[in-house]
Amino acid sequence: MIVPPEELRQHLHIDGDDEDAVIRSISLAAEGQVRDWIGRPLYASEDHLPSPGAEDYHPSQIVADERIKVAIKMLADRMFAARGGEGGGAEDAVPPTTVRALLAGHRVFFWEATRDADG
């Protein structure tokens, strides 16, 4: 996990570990949303990065910095607040503006170049 449960508990202002299973699930969901938004594999530390040539190596893989960790916490906070399924409006289709701003420098885009057969 990029953001440890105890750190997320502190961010969510939750005392005790009664909701750790929920917090873990939400944290992983928030990580997945960040990973999907930036389009690259995320890792908690350099020790977890796959080496070039490894099966799970990706050339754009990165270690989560503080901006990514804050974005994960913000998304997790939003998910925790709406864990009963409330909301579901169009604004939920993409991360909030602040989260997108935090992640903007990490986002990658891939274009497949296609050429006409005649050049």
UniProtKB/TrEMBL annotation:
InterPro entries reported for this sequence: Phage_gp6-like_head-tail, Phage_HK97_gp6-like
Source species, domain of life: Bacteria
A Pfam family assignment: Phage_connect_1
NCBIfam families from the UniProt entry: put_DNA_pack
Protein name, entry field: Phage gp6-like head-tail connector protein
